Structure formats: structure tokens, C-alpha cells
Amino acid sequence: MQRRGSARRRIRPAQQTHARQLPARVFPRGPGQCGTAPAWTHGRKGNASMSEQATTPPCIIVVFGARGDLTKRLVMPALYNLRRSGALGDDFAIVGMDHGDISERAWRTNMGQSMTQLLSSRDAEFQTDEFDTATWDWLRERMHYLRGDFTDQGAYRSLGGVLDKLHKRYGTQGNVLFYLATAARFFEPVLLNLGEAGLVKQREGEGWRRVIVEKPFGHDLPSAQHLNATVAKVLHEDQVFRIDHFLGKETVQNILAFRFANGLFEPVWNRDRIDHVQITAAETIGVEGRGRFYDPTGCLRDMVPNHLFQLLAMIAMEPPAAFTTEAMHRRRAEVIEAVRPIKPEDVVRGQYASGAVNRNAVPGYREEDTVPDDSDTETYVAMKLQVDTWRWAGVPFYLRTGKRLRERTTEIAIRFKPAPLAPFRSTEVGGYGPDWLVLHIQPDEGISLQFDVKRPGAQVALAPVRMDFRYRDWFPKEYTVGYERLLQDCMNGEAGLFQDAAMVEGAWRIVQPILDAWKQPPSDFPNYAAGSAGPSAADALLAMNGGHAWRALTPGRKPPPRRPPEARAGVAAPIKKTTKKTAKKAGKATPKRAAAPSAKSTQGAAGSPGKVAKTSVTKRATKKVAKAAAKAVSNAAAGKSAAKKSASKTAVRIPRR
């Protein structure tokens, strides 16, 4: 253990030195930033934690939809984490606005209860070792509630009066961040009313005004274009932040550093070396009482034009000349514009039926509360995309996302092409496994690389192994929900991790033909059980495109199989030497009814395949046979000629309990 720790101490300083010496053309110095990190990293280096980052400027956050699910699950936990890390100063306050007729005290209590409930949920993004009551007390005292109808102009006049009082009370210098955490149908009336009330007009010396708009930004291409036009009437483009919380996750931000700060991977990041790419965002939860919101939206609108396309853009984008907001937006938009129009046969939709998730019985989608009994809304989407650029021509990108799946995981898996020639002539057919590079977004953030090595022994046999990088192993433990960095960026006016109007409309332009094709109701809904990996049609989609297959949905990171699946069929298992002690232990563990070999399968002890017939043996007989088998295997390993004969008469496969 001591040597391992000292090795790490030797490696880390070199890594930090390398990060500091990155050329300015790669990570240009931004205003107020240290080192050569880009603006979106906030000058974070080495083992710097969130608490070491610069504090946010004074401001008031106004949350429209203060009693909604998004506010409870993500916005409030993010503000709690920012305060606990020291990023929020005393010149900060929150105003929650909603139509619910409750008191300010009741709203505060409700938010506190929601956060403690999240901590008991296995699938919640808000996690912490211990809930800090002092941090929550500080935040709660700065939470103010205003009842108001989002379509009523009088509510916005009242909001203006509240803001004037709070600016004086907390010294927030007139800075206001408006957060639209409402249903999408309220985006336009809220924006127009903010404009008419003069609440988003920026005057010199009176602070800044910015607006965060949640996804989905529109429900199709025409509505997205209309909403962008509304935004342009009320706000300057640098005032609006179209948020996607996936871009706030460390592993997503690390994609750029991983690709462009390391000379090792960029040379193979192209069609010559990459076979295909899989992007997965799987959830175990259902609609969780949000059927009224989810049913008119569906999985395609909710996840694909924003979350999955953003991950696609980060993987496929060309290196920007400089890490400025404009350059980042332009490079990501180029990827979306290069996506080939999708054919209906390259898309699969699904809806979950009842089943079991984590051994708990769950209802089907149509059986969920607030969901119509005859709903045709999809809860699963899989698709094949082609990016028509010089770098990616001919490389398929497979995207899938869904609810009530087997495991909660978000990852980007890149499969490399096999070696062009198999020089190891003695290696069994199919012995070359695929090489994978996997970027784990959640829940276990990090990067894995799987490749083949020679298995120890006289014969040349290959086995897949894996190298793992986990954030938790190298950096201080931090709990985030993905919104902390994005909220800080909004307060600091940094838009590099947000979408602009061109990206939004480009994404809807890709999705629109699918929406048009899906106006015809499906005939097979529901078509996958809750707790499964999705509909069988999604597997067929990959099988018909080069014989590919989805990566298994697994909790966390399981080690790779000792042999690739294609190398297991018809190949003998390696001999494992059995001692008398282990044979005796195996005999004790054997049930009364054990399997005995047929005449044709008597070479099973040496690893040859054969049919095993079932027969009844006593414990004593089983022990005797196990000892004889162990002796035969030992003799075979020593090269004694009598081993085969002995094994053929006495070898038996001992079943495991």
C-alpha cells in the first residue's frame, strides 16, 4: 500500500505540470481566470475542489415554478451545494413564484422535506454524506415566496416591488437571474410579461438581467423557431441561457480536455480507427407522478434534441481555434448540421409495461397516475445517426434513452475497429475481442479503456482487460447534481456550456421527420417490460447494421468477461489445478443429487465439452470421485501418461450451489 501511494505522489505533480503548460491557443486565458484553463473550467486545476473556486457575484434568483419537480430535484439541491462549497456569499437571495396559494413558511418547509426525501432515494441525483443543517438554515432564510399567475401582468408588477426591497436588504446590486422552471407552455407568456414589466431591461449602473430557459425549448421545429423569435423580441442573445444539465456534469466537460489536451487519443478519433459509437441515457424511474407534463412531451422530445445531441456534438466536434463561447457554439452546431436526415426505419420507439425494477414491482406506463389509459406516448427511443463530415463519414452513431430500464446509467461508448491482421496463428477463432473506450457520465463518473492482452500460459490466448479512471479515486469527493457549474456560469455571464438558437433549431430539424412519421399510433404498445433493456426492435436495429449489439446495462462498472462472448463457444476452458483441500471442500458443498458424466463426456475434467447426464450419488461417493478427479488433473499437469486414462474413467463435473 505504501508503494502504491508513493507512485501516485510521483505521478500527480507531473500531470499538474502538464496541465499548467498547455499552450494558450488550446486553453486561452480568460478574464479573471488563473492558469491557462478555459473560461468554462473556472480556472480549476489539479485537486481543486468546488470550494476553491471564485464565489459568484451578488444576485437574486427568481424561480418561476417554485413548487415544481425540477425546483425540488435539481435547482434547490444545486444552490445548497453551492452554498456549502462557499461559492454563494451573503449578498444572495431566492424568490420563488408560483400559482399555489401557500405561505412563505410552508414553501420553505416543503422544500426542506423534499431535499431530505431525495437523500433516501437510490436514484436521486442529490446525494451527500451528511445533510448540513447550518447550510440549509442559511439558504432557507433567504427564500421568499410570491404567489402569482404566470399570465397575469399584475403579478410581475408585484415581483418588481419585491425585487426592489430585496436588493436593498441583501445588497445584490440590481443583479437578477430569472429561471423558467415551468411547463414549456408558460415560456412565452413569462418572457413577454418580463419584457412588458421592464424587469429584463439592462440599464447602465443598475446591474445585469439574465434568463435561464429549461428544456424542451419548443415541442417541434416551428414552435422552437417561434420561441426563438419571442426571445429575440425581449432579450439580447447574451442574456438568454438555454440550459442542458448534462453539460454541467464533470465527465461531459472532461470530454474536451480528454480529446484536445492529450495527444494520445486525437490521432485515432476518426473513421479510420473507430467502428461505431453508442450513447446511452437509461433511467430506472418512471414518470413519478409527472404524467401531465410527460405525456404530451414523450421521450423523444424530452431527451434527444437536447441531452443526447449535446453529447453527440461534444464527441464529434472539431477542435475550436479558441475556447471562446462563440467558437464552442459554432463547432457544436457544425456537428448537428452535418447529421444526415433520419429514415423512419432507423428509429425505434417503445413504451414500458408492468414489470420489476430492482426487485420491486412497478406498473406499466398506462397504469401510472395522471397518464391516460390509452396513451401512445413513447418512453423509449433508439436511433442510428450518420454524421457526414470528413472525420466521421461511414461511422454509425447509435443513441438510446428510456425510462424503467434495468439500470440507471449514462455513458458514451466508442468501439474501435479490430486489428487488420491476426498475427497470432495459434489463437482460437474469435479470440480477438473488441476494444472499447467508455466515458461514464453517471452514476460512476470516469473513463474506462478495454483492450486485449495475452493470457499467462504456454499457449497464445487473448483475454480482455480494462484500465479505469474514476474521479472519486483521484480528486476530492464532491456531490453535484450537474446544475452547480451551470448556475455559476449564468451568474458570471459564461455561455460556453449552453445552446444557442442555431443549435436548438438544428436539433429540431433532425427530429421533425420522426415526429411527423410517429403521428400514426403504434400497434404494439406497450412493447417492453419494466426492468428490461428495452424493446427487441432496438436490438434488431443494431444487428441489421453491421451485426452490432448494444452494450449491456449494468450497475456501475463490472469487469470485462474473461473471454469475449464470441470466443467462448466451442472453446475449452482452461485447466484449473485442484488440490485435495479444494476437492474436499467441493465435495462438502455438493448436493445429494449431483451430475455425473456420460461416456462421451469423460474428458470434462481436462476442459473438453461434453454432455453431462444427471444421476444420484451419495455424499461419500461424490467426495471419492472429486478426489480422483483432482488426482487425475494433477497427473496431467505433471505430464504423466496415465492421466488421460484415469480422467476418462473418473472425471466428474462438480456442480456449484
Automatic annotation (TrEMBL):
Residue ranges, annotated region (Disordered): 1-31, 550-657
GO biological process: glucose metabolic process; pentose-phosphate shunt, oxidative branch
Biological source species: Xanthomonas citri pv. vignicola
One Pfam family matching this protein: G6PD_N
Top EC class for this record: oxidoreductase
Biased composition (Low complexity): 567-576, 627-641, 648-657
Protein residues bound to NADP(+): 149-150, 215
Similarity comment: family membership: Belongs to the glucose-6-phosphate dehydrogenase family.
Record-annotated Glucose-6-phosphate dehydrogenase C-terminal domain positions: 256-550
Ranges where the Glucose-6-phosphate dehydrogenase NAD-binding domain occurs: 62-254
Record's catalysed reaction(s): D-glucose 6-phosphate + NADP(+) = 6-phospho-D-glucono-1,5-lactone + NADPH + H(+)
Entries under PROSITE patterns matching the protein: G6P_DEHYDROGENASE
Biased composition regions of type Basic residues, renumbered to the chain: 1-12, 577-591
Name by which UniProt lists this protein: Glucose-6-phosphate 1-dehydrogenase
Biochemical pathway: Carbohydrate degradation; pentose phosphate pathway; D-ribulose 5-phosphate from D-glucose 6-phosphate (oxidative stage): step 1/3
GO cellular component, one term: cytosol
Residues forming the catalytic site: 307
EC number: 1.1.1.49
Gene Ontology molecular-function annotations: glucose-6-phosphate dehydrogenase activity; NADP binding
Residues where substrate binds: 245, 249, 283, 302, 403
Role this protein plays: Catalyzes the oxidation of glucose 6-phosphate to 6-phosphogluconolactone.
